[in-house]
Amino acid sequence: MHKLMEVEEARVLMTEGKEWGVWRWLWEKSRARATSDRAVDALADAEKKVKASWSDDLKKAYRELEAQASLNGNLKGKRRYEKAKEEAKDVDLEIKSVVQRVKEADDEAERARLDAEDTFDEAERRLSTDMAREGAQKAMDSWDLREKAIRKAEAAGRRK
User: Fold this and answer.
1) Contact 110/141 with Cβ under 8 angstroms?
2) What's the pTM value of the predicted model, to 2 decimals?
C-alpha cells in the first residue's frame, strides 16, 4: 500500500494539534475534523479498491463473515447470513482463515476509529485539550490500524 496524501496531511495536522491550547482547538476543530474525515474516506476508498480486486472465493468468504457479524435476531439478517453461508460453502478453509484475519483487522481498525471520534466528541463537550490531544493520537492510531488491515487485504489477494 502506498502512502495516501490525505492521511499524511491529517497526520501532520493532528501532530500539530497535540500541542494546541483550548482556544486553538476551538478555532481549528472543524478543519481538524474535515481533514480527519478526508483521511478516513481515502482509506475506505483504498480498502474498496483492494477488495474489489479479490477473487470470488475471497469475496464470498468475506461476505459470509460480514453477514454473520450483522446477525441481530431478525429474519432478514438470518436470511442474509444463510445465503452468504451457502455461497461460501465450497470456499477452501485456508481462504476462510485468511479472510477471518482480514476481517478481524478491519473490525479492530473500525473500533479504533469510533473510539477516536467519541474521544473528540467528549473533548468538545468538556472543552478539554487533554482529551482532544488523546483523540488526535487515537485518530492517528486508527489510521495505522486501517493501513495494516488494507495491507492484510492486499496480501490475501496475492495468495495463490
Assistant:
1) no
2) 0.90
| H helix count then E strand count, the chain | 6, 0
Residue that has been written with the C-alpha cell 490525505 in this structure:
6
Instruction: Identify the domain containing residue 104 by its residue range.
Output: 5-54+93-158
User: Contact at 8 Å (CB) between 4 and 43?
Assistant: yes
Task: Please count the structural domains in the chain.
Answer: 1
Residue 109 lies in a domain: yes
pLDDT band per the 50, 70, 90 thresholds, residue 42: very high
Checking phi first, is residue 73 left (phi over 0); if not, alpha (psi -120 to 50) or beta? left
Q: Return d(Cα 151, Cα 47) in angstroms, integer.
A: 9
Looking at the domain assignment, is residue 67 inside a domain? no
pLDDT in tens, 75-129: 888 888 899 889 999 999 999 999 999 999 999 999 999 999 999 999 989 989 9
- 78 in any annotated domain: no
- Cell digits for 87? 455461497
